[in-house]
Design brief:
Length: 308
């Protein structure tokens, strides 16, 4: 045994986590976790009992460390979804820690078998949330369809008589077979196949040629809560209520009534208030005079609103 190996083993005994490099260097991480020794059944049971009975964190750490290679192995099964393997491994590690916390050594099952469910469950959740902006699977049957459609499709294309490797669409018979086997409706198979076959579209414009209006970000963005628009909306609301009342109070009685009748009054038949000629007849002046009073009153109100 050389000095380097002895030093590594001594470090592992003091702080096993020191052997695992940061996830930033994925190759180094995978290489390191593959070198961590596996636990014997006796060691695994002993650490599991320490965790269960004494809440020994060090024992939990040893159980997790010895199964990090399992997470790496499982993560490779999901590389076809275009997500970084490092992220898949991190999510799988979360599932592994949940499995370790719930593991009961008295059940007669090895941790490696028990943890696979938890690791895959976390990775599945991560893929469903991040692979597409639109959630593609909601029910248990749809999730099974999502994660089995590709492999089933490849199997059918590979074994169907006279099949062509470049043919990607499913035939009606293949759709029905998948629907029956996975306990979903045929139209759900077709919809999932369409979603899985569709390409991703970049939200941001990919060029600098001034075509921003054609990028999805231009019509998907909800700018109603943008701070400037919120302030503008508040200003409009204030002016349409308190501001208008304040402006009306600056007018004399005749000018105010003319403005209210001409601009603010709505009758039951939605015909609005009085006309210029009706007001002129009431006040004993010409319609032109009523219009001049109206223009002057509105100008005065506008100045008041600008100050407010």
């Amino acid at each position: 045994m050389n000095t380097t190996t002895s030093a590594s083993q001594a470090l592992a005994l003091r702080d096993p986590w020191a052997l695992v490099p940061p996830m930033g260097n994925l190759d180094a991480y995978i290489s390191a976790v593959n070198r961590i020794p596996l636990l014997t059944p006796e060691e695994e049971s002993a650490f599991a009992r320490k965790l269960r009975d004494d809440e020994d964190i060090q024992a939990a750490g040893r159980l997790v460390l010895s199964h990090l290679r399992l997470v790496v192995s499982i993560s490779r099964q999901y590389l076809g979804y275009g997500l970084p393997q490092g992220d898949l491994i991190q999510e799988g590690n979360v599932g592994l820690m949940k499995a370790v916390k719930r593991f009961d050594p008295e059940q007669g099952v090895r941790l490696v078998s028990y943890a696979m469910h938890w690791i895959k469950a976390e990775i599945h959740e991560y893929i469903l949330k991040n692979w597409r902006m639109v959630k593609v699977a909601t029910t248990k049957a749809q999730r099974k369809l999502f994660f089995n459609l590709r492999s089933m499709k490849q199997g059918m294309k590979g074994h169907a008589p006279g099949s062509e490797t470049h043919r990607n669409t499913l035939t009606p018979d293949e759709v029905q077979r998948m629907a029956t086997e996975l306990n979903v409706k045929p139209e759900e198979v077709v919809e999932m196949e369409t979603r899985l076959s569709g390409g991703d579209v970049a939200l941001e414009p990919q060029t600098d040629d001034g075509e921003e209006s054609y990028a999805p970000i231009a019509y998907l963005a909800d700018d109603s809560q943008e701070p400037t628009r919120v302030l503008e909306a508040r200003s409009r609301d204030a002016q349409s209520s308190d501001g208008i009342m304040l402006a009306l109070n600056t007018l004399d009685e005749r000018s105010r009534r003319i403005v209210e009748e001409r601009w603010l009054k709505v009758n039951d038949d939605s015909s609005g208030g009085m006309t210029l000629h009706e007001l002129a007849a009431e006040y004993g002046v010409s319609a032109e005079r009523i219009r001049q009073i109206e223009v002057a009153a509105l100008k005065k109100m506008r100045k008041t609103l600008e100050v407010a």
